Amino acid sequence: MSLALEDRLAITELVSLHGHLVDDGCLDRLEELFTADVVYDLTDFGQEPLHGVAAIREAAWALGAANPVAHHVTNVVVTASADGQVHARSKGLGIKADGTCGSVSYDDTVVRTADGWRISHRKVSPRRTPLSGKTKPA
């Protein structure tokens, strides 16, 4: 499957919009990012996946002041597969109020809806080990 340049740009902007909406506290606009039945997979953080936009919104409100003050998304790579699925992989940096930061990878499945592209599945994986723990082969 081939994606038009306009679709690639729309998907990249969709992924980028997440940080703006969350950092601005616009949690009432999460439907602009996700499908209603989205799965937001946080298992790599020891949490159960969140199901649906309302669950994502509630988790953000519950986290409160522990939320990062800034989400930065970089290195967005959009891939369309032969089976028609579209994936976006990106890197995220989160800056906390105390100045500490963390890095994650976002692995998204995106689908075209009547309202435009939306994320139907997001897996968030922490980046804690250089080179993903790989060492030089002997």
Mind explaining what this structure looks like?
- It is a single chain.
- With 138 residues, this protein is α+β, with helices and mostly antiparallel strands.
- It has one domain (5-127): Nuclear Transport Factor 2, Chain: A (Roll), CATH 3.10.450.50.
- 22% of the residues lie in helices and 40% in strands.
- The protein contains two helices and six strands; from the N terminus they run H-E-E-H-E-E-E-E.
- It has helices at 5-23, 53-63, and strands at residues 34-41, 50-51, 70-80, 86-95, 101-113, 116-126.
- A six-stranded mixed β-sheet has the order 2-1-6-5-4-3, with helices on one face.
- The model has no long low-confidence stretch (mean pLDDT 95).
- It comes from Streptomyces spinosisporus.
- Pfam families: SnoaL_4 (PF13577).
- This is Nuclear transport factor 2 family protein.
- Residues 4-123 form the SnoaL-like domain.
